[in-house]
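Standup notes
- DV: blocked on the single-chain target, sequence here:
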Amino acid sequence: MPWNALFRLARKIGAPHAGTEAIKAVEPLTHQDTKAAILELSLAVRNNPESVEIYLALGNLYRSQGEIERAIHIRTSLIERPGLSETLKARCHFELGRDFRRGGMLDKARNAFEAARKIQGDSEEIELELARLAADSGDFERAAQHYERIKRPMAEAHFLTQQAREHFRLREDNKANALLERALRAFPASPEAWLATVVHSALSGNLELHSASLRNACTNIPAPQRFLLLEDLLMALSSCRFEDATQPNRTVLSPAAITQLVRTSVSVLSKFPPDALICYYCAKFCLFEGDRESAKHWLEKALVLNADFWLARLELVTLVLVDQELTPFLREQLAYFINHARKSKRFVCNSCGFRWDKTFFVCPRCRSWHTILFRQEFS
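- DV (later): unblocked, structure below
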């Protein structure tokens, strides 16, 4: 019986009975559908025990339900079956690798994928799984190598940058810089690689190097994504302000050095064509240093470029309210609304609409690369 016919029949079997109490107690429909499909496939296997495809589909359903041991048992039984074709055996090893990965058995998963590759040869599907395994294991350089083989430069640059950050953390700057150079050769517009470069130049305290790094980064990264640099640069400078005994290897800069870095950053950004996001972050840098008048100037420029830029308007209102004579009650209510408005998620995936209050390079929902945007208009 074809798979689509099996699944339609399984949905009929899994449909809840009528009645108010029954409707309240039923499981989610997708869960019912999966369980019903497992039941129907199990019946089909009994009637046709030689059908490997049905076994593979059943194993996939068990894995989707989290029943990893049952899925693994199905794959291993198939692999040991005499007379199984090489193509199906490779597929069984591949699915077994996915089972092991889902169960957290990363070494076994890698061995299964390698066994599939030994039979089938190199394929994008296997390389992609091996890349994910390497990333899950913290072996970012190996993950980058796998992505390089299947010509995915965004992912390659991302994981080379991850490895570079590890070397920076261990004070192995030469190794880190070499990896960042590789990342930018693979994908010159990589916001991850440029961010790591800019942050490292800032933490070095070298103003000339920082100025050049920030200028090159903003030149190479598309304008809608420059905020990724500036958001995390602000966070990095903030973390350098005070000693923290719990992080002994963290860089700490003097207030004077941070002031110079902020001024240098604003000077570099001001030379780019007018852009609402750049103006907004120039204001944030000024506020970081307590320069309220300069911050007002940049926020007003941002609103000229985009009158609906709600966060720039919110920051400007906050600055103006400080100089207004308000009753304590009204000031308290305004502070309440402003604080809650600031909690609104600023970042959105341009692909699936997912919103988050943190920056991301890969969308947590749809797994799209570099689809993040700053949500300027309030909706």
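- Follow-up: The beta strands are 347-349, 355-356, 372-374.
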